[in-house]
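User: Some background: our group keeps a shared notebook of sequences we're curious about, and every so often someone picks one and asks for a predicted structure to add to the entry. Today it's my turn. The entry only has the sequence so far, pasted here. Could you supply the structure so I can complete it?
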Amino acid sequence: AYLTVSIEPLPPVVVGDAVTLKCNFKTDGKMREIVWYRVTDGGTIKQKIFTFDAMFSTNFSQMENYRKREDLVYQSTVRLPEVRISDNGPYECHVGIYDRATREKVVLASGNVFLNVMAPPTSISVLAADTPAPFSRYQAQNFTLVCVVSGGKPAPLVYFKRDGEPIEATPLPEPPVGAGSWAPRNLLHRDLDDTKVPKSLAADGEPGMGNPFPTADPPRGLAAERDSVTESIPETVVSREFPRWVHMAEPIYYFRHTHAPVSDGTVEARATLTWTLNPQIDNEALFSCEVKHPALSMPMQSEVTLVAPKGPKIMMTPTRAHVGDTVRILVQGFQNEVFPEPLFTWTRVGSRLLDGSAEHDGKELVLERVPAELNGSMYRCTAQNPLGSTDTHTRLIVFENPNIPRGPEDSNG
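Assistant: Of course. Here's the predicted structure to add to the notebook entry:
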């Protein structure tokens, strides 16, 4: 007797689709059994998902008795009504027949097929690396956007746009395994404001100083970091709203794409876009991250607008503070949508804070058991992100606490 088995190949399917596995076999022997297996763990485990035993089937015995030709063509199907990612993998169809010569010997043959289950990404988000971060008038800063795409299988294609136009970026290699941050560091040179370069550095070839910049031309935008230098900053620079960076006409973008497998079979993809930030042209620029995936009919996207903080709104509680109260001063928001997350710094104008510190970081400043001496004190909140900074002030008025008894000298007037 002879037996040939084949399984019809399947195109990739999407999670939730109904799938039918078809096993075709041709034989001139008597049917014994059909068994379907799902293969897992690299082929080490085979799980039965369907069994047909001809010894207990009247249908097949009738077909055998009424056979009009020498061989018959059979088809066994297994239907998966709603595939999941866990259904991804190889499947095998095993067929056994009785040998026509001996009627005791069983002839076996099998076929296999790989079911490729795709899943569209479930979430996409854009965030800024290393935030909150300060605004610097004195040194150009690298800025990195991170796009995180989760739930997809296989890994999606991720790319960035600026104001609706695709960004042409220089690709970077994947970071070494175990790297702590997705954001590339020390990629871009620190362009100094030309009004602040000390004369000792500006004088090229001055004796004893040498050339402060590398003699060999580095790749564009990848100049080596210089050692930190103490710079004398003219007071006139501080009053400018934005720095005047030494910039090329067009920013140079660097792109990195990485992906990591997740336990559920999907992939988390991360794409980073890094460039030297220029607050003059990047403030209010719209950046979008878009994702293409074979399981999506149209791209997914998430977008952010880079905006410096403007007009902080401050709330003080209680509104009428008395001696001994705990006062909380909180930044409730801004007049605009701010991205990336601002860094908040509190100072007391002309003096130190109540706890003796020069400044306090955070969205809220808490003054425990305020004394009468704080009446009329002014507090400054500086809100800043890499695109700019803004200050706002509030004055603390401390009223006498009626719950504190007066001393004898007070009662006698």
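Suggested note for the entry: The first helix runs from residue 58 to 65. Residues 58-70, 176-242, 409-413 have pLDDT under 50 and may be disordered.
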